Task: inverse folding
């Protein structure tokens, strides 16, 4: 019989214990990511109102500035919303970065693993990491402008920023990164937490993957159509750069 020496106070108290914190952090990361995806879709719906008409975009903008509640625009309301979004992005990024490969050696191990198993979800995760990394650099420029100049949002104002201020290359890259990252993230959330899995998880995963690409393609098409509309307005409005848009029913009046 094998004998083992036990030292009082050592051993039992030092045993590895299961922690719930990784699961809690994953849950917090997922909630933050889901909130950002829903915000992204709502934001796309708002900015794409330019495809309806310039007056429609002006109305949406003024609504979020409180114009129809206070009788005057309060752009600082937009700054508050942007501040909340920035805080959510920072929280989500800090929770997500703990899973990133932090060295070239770790990246090579992951790439070898991905090539060996050739699983589409593993490849999607890599794309999620790369687009998330890209958003570290792309999102702050846009958010800072929205935070510091919320009064410069509107049919002419936004178009001037897109074209005359040369923001359109940033917005092309930002649109690609955010739609791919958000779509993959939502798909992986659904798979991870068993949403809509039903009795056949494999079939459910195929349906979710098809829905994910459908949603991504739809929002990319909507985003590029919206960006093209702002570019067109920006080109036409360039000789009058800085002029604010006034809707038809308010022309001749002072809009505050």
Result:
């Amino acid at each position: 019989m094998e004998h083992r020496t036990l030292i009082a106070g050592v051993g039992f108290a030092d045993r590895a214990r299961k922690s719930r914190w990784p699961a809690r952090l994953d849950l917090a990361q997922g909630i933050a990511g889901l909130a950002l995806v829903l915000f992204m879709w709502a934001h796309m719906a708002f900015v794409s109102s330019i495809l309806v008409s310039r007056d429609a975009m002006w109305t949406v903008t003024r609504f979020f500035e409180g114009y129809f509640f206070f009788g005057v625009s309060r752009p600082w309301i937009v700054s508050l919303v942007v501040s909340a979004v920035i805080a959510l992005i920072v929280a989500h990024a800090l929770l997500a970065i703990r899973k990133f490969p932090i060295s070239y050696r770790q990246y090579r191990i992951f790439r070898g693993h991905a090539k060996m198993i050739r699983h589409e979800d593993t490849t999607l995760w890599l794309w999620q990491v790369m687009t998330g990394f890209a958003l570290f650099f792309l999102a702050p420029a846009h958010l800072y402008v929205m935070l510091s100049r919320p009064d410069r949002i509107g049919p002419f104002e936004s178009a001037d920023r897109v074209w005359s201020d040369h923001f359109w290359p940033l917005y092309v890259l930002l649109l690609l990164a955010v739609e791919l990252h958000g779509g993959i993230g939502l798909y992986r959330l659904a798979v991870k937490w068993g949403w809509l899995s039903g009795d056949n998880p494999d079939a459910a995963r195929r349906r979710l993957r098809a829905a994910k690409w459908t949603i991504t393609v739809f929002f990319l098409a909507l985003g590029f159509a919206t960006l093209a509309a702002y570019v067109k307005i920006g080109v036409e409005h360039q000789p009058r750069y800085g002029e604010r848009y006034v809707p038809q029913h308010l022309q001749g009046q002072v809009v505050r």
